[in-house]
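Working notes for the structural subgroup meeting. M.R. asked for a predicted model of this chain before we commit to crystallization trials. I am recording the input and output together here so anyone reviewing the notebook later can reproduce the run.

Input as submitted:
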Amino acid sequence: MVQMIDVYKAYDNGTKALKGISFELDDGEFAFLVGPSGSGKSTIIKLLTGEIAATEGRVVVNGFDLGQMKMRKMPRMRRTLGVVFQDFRLIEKKTVYENVAFAMRAVGASNREIRKRVPYVLELVGLNVDPKRKPQELSGGEQQRVAIARALVNNPSMIIADEPTGNLDPARSLEIILLLQKINELGTTVLIVTHEKDLVDQFSKRVIAIDQGRLISDGTGGYYTYENIQ
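Returned structure, recorded in token form:
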């Protein structure tokens, strides 16, 4: 579960990124977080992953109260999360298999566990390429599937996908969202951060909308904008 309770965030340069944001995301839920550029979406991601701390308010992620938590517990909290980025962030010199296995090695998994888990996750995300290929040999959609496999491989409670379709064409974008929906149906909580209205409108999912650091709507039925809730 994720809880943001009356969260404010002001940066050192004076920017007030969040102004009293509150929402909850239950275990196993699927939601989109939407809003225009500069609305505070990236700040929310950084708060949820522990990259930055709230100025005021409370942030709880999978049972960890980030405002009260000691830094030595941060790696344990982050293992409950899998993060997918717009620019994939794959290691170019490593193969598909090695990119996914690297995430397991980082948390101390054994070679036996890696040999069992990596092929399973690559199959789960529907990646039908030779795992010995390098990222630059793959299409954008294939690279994003590798990135999702890497995020999934340590069996996190939640996936946070930050503009996961930003570098993809509409057909590949739809495939990626359908894949994330499939992952959610297997029990993983999914939060997708996006500004792609047409894509969000194809799904009857919860949409959390923010603008200028404030929550402006939270419900199902499509992408919300400030104008259509006046």
